[in-house]
């Protein structure tokens, strides 16, 4: 749900035996994307850290579809689109034990880690994920997440890309044009939402700030560095949702060395609708 304010060049990836370093745990290797991952934190023994979760937390009309599509084009990264609020559903089920502590709502004691692990599995199943990517995740609008702290419980070893717009006025105008509503109320909501994300960033080292206005080859390559991905560079930025248009297939804008292989970029995206 994003619109870029100016035209950006085509995305091109150049790969040369890409390697992931300094991430969380050992993962699948391939000729195109070998991984050298060692556990760096005690949380790596946590069953909730079995996979390398990567989430894009977006404010809407902020470039998140571009972020999703570019990262999903990188070998061994699978990044899906939005859902209707799985996190809110999971948090509600957990909290109702306290809110409705009466016989009519009786439940046995909760094994929290087991419960949260089941939510992770539900998320993977809901997206139809069957692969063995080094990184797996999705993008989500912050408005669908009641408590960002719950994300830390659900993904204790996850990494979060915070995507927003510095220009609140331009973003509010874009949202009202597409979704309707009052411009002043939309602006107020965006200010509060951005403050939530800033507070989340300040309290969590595993976050990467990526405002729309900073979209550039250099910034996206810094994102790859932050993820521990080496020998894999972006050569351009392709906006995936200019106005109301989506680009679902990135396979024709990726260039690999002849000795490399790559999962078909955009293949799984064509099997599911965009938002």
Key words describing this protein structure:
275 residues, alpha/beta, 5-stranded parallel beta sheet, 4-stranded mixed beta sheet, 7 helices, disordered N terminus
Describe this structure in words.
- Helices cover 32% and strands 16% of the residues.
- It is globular, with a radius of gyration of 19 Å.
- The N terminus and C terminus are likely disordered.
- The N and C termini lie close together (8 Å).
- With 275 residues, the chain is of the alpha/beta class.
- It has seven helices and nine strands, in the order βββαβααβαβααβαββ.
- It has a five-stranded parallel sheet with strand order 4-5-3-6-7, sandwiched between helices.
